Amino acid sequence: MTFQNTREFARELDSKDTLNHYQEQFIFPKVNDKRVIYFTGNSLGLQPKRTKAYIDEIMNDWAELAVEGHFYAEKPWWDYQERFAEPLSKIVGALPSEVTVMNTLTVNLHLLMVSFYQPKGKRYKIICEEKAFPSDQYMFQSQVHFHGYKPEDAIVEIKRREGEHNIRLEDVLAKIEEVGDELALVLIGGVNYYTGQVFDIKTITAAGQKAGAKVGWDLAHAAGNIKLELHDWNVDFAAWCSYKYMNSGPGNASGVFVHERHHNDPDLPRFAGWWGHNKERRFKMEPNFDPVHGAGGWQISNLPVLSLAPYLASVEMFAEVGMDALIKKRDHITSYLEFILHEIDKEVAGNFEIITPSNPEERASQLSVFLHGEGRSLFDYLMKNGVITDWREPNVIRLAPVPLYCSYEDMYDFGQILKKGILGK
Ligand SMILES: Cc1ncc(COP(=O)(O)O)c(C=O)c1O
Ligand SMILES: Nc1c(O)cccc1C(=O)C[C@H](N)C(=O)O
């Protein structure tokens, strides 16, 4: 399709967009009395209007039933997490028994590393991406320390080539081969938070496992954003937060995937708690831990249902829409945004550069723009004029045209504001 940088054209795309009406299901902040153009769904998704009712339901059950709510609430709290199995498994391409929800992302990655990072003899190294999200870097450092190794020896980063913004698949595979029988774990962000680069999860997982390592994924920027087939790709484990593309609210609960083949492994160490104990016998208060067969066996505490409620609202919305429709719009609107950026760049001559891969196979709902010119003041200008983006040092703004609530007209309007911000403030 040949795109045009006009309001009429953008409106025509909106009129043909089957997801366009979902915008009305979200609450947008306002700047200058106008709803914002929201590009930071990769950091914190907008609040769906339906979410409040899910929270109210729990508040009402709590008021009316108090402790009895665990078993007699409209949606009983003691097994509330099971409502996620079906819809969440579809979102991440898993069997229902392979997913659960609990804790928060970094906590879950730590808990999964307890099970899947078991350094022994010469096999103790972890491969990750260069400039992984800082929380992941701190996690790796603390985990290798915990096992008695030195981070500079045990953590192997895959580097970008000189002058390049993204990591090449061939370099990931070469590094895995090079580390070979010293490799204990590969753990990478499925979508890089900074550049928006999408990694080839299937190929990297197979290569890591061929080298004798376990392979896990931080799917913070991938869940609800890219097509995942975690079961078929044979991924060992994964975790993601729900507050980005999945719109479940600030700091909210995390999802976890553990591949079926690990469910009955009696030798796998894990940190246990009563919510991971055999569901039928949980309230018999027995002394010996008998894990639930499935990802639920990694649960520890009883669930914070007040924070799971918004997540449930979200997965039900995803079930309605389906990942295929989301991804179709995602690719189209991201390409339109890329076109708008190139059009504006022609007029402002080399003020910025898109560092996200231009190949649609290697990107999803994010374009990261490196600003050569004014940087921070341009970011401030956009914010003041109702374009919510985020700033990442040293000079990058990230734009996520989230398909559930961004419109094509938003992309056009953004282009006009950006141009004014660079040329004519
Ligand atoms: C890739 C990645 N990993 C980890 C985190 C940390 O998540 P949390 O603070 O929920 O543990 C984030 C976002 O904050 C992230 O983007
Ligand atoms: N969770 C966040 C927060 O509480 C404050 C600021 C930012 C965040 C984020 O989630 C950042 C996000 N992971 C990122 O990709 O940058």
UniProtKB/TrEMBL annotation:
Signal peptide: none annotated. It is an enzyme of class 3 (hydrolase). It holds the Pfam family KYNU_C. The keyword Hydrolase applies. SUPFAM superfamilies: PLP-dependent transferases. Belongs to the kynureninase family. This is Kynureninase.
